[in-house]
Amino acid sequence: MRENRVLNFRPTMSSHAVLVAATDRPATLFRLTKVFPDHHPNFTYVDIHSAPTEAQIYFEYSTEHDSSERVAADLRAV
Fold first, then answer.
1. pTM over 0.70
2. Which of 2, 33, 47, 69 shows the smallest number of beta carbons within 10 Å?
3. What does R_g of the chain's alpha carbons equal in angstroms?
């Protein structure tokens, strides 16, 4: 009987969506996106809606590790 072998293993990516409501000011998007590199995301969708005083930025991304709570905390700190 032949043993099963794993030839290629990739951990399942964990998918997340985050909607951020922020004051619409210069560099807001820049400051928010600086949060993500430490969490190694693969962005699948980004959408931005701007009103006179508020911007809503929607991010969809996947990561190998579930760091959603840390991402949310880091975004709140911005």
1. yes
2. 2
3. 17
Q: Give pLDDT tens digits for 46-74.
A: 999 988 888 899 999 998 887 888 888 99
Contact 60, 14 (CB under 8 A): no
Give CA–CA dist 41/65, Å, rounded.
Answer: 9
Q: What is the end-to-end Cα distance of the chain in Å, rounded?
A: 58
Number of Cβ within a 10 Å radius of residue 55 = 17
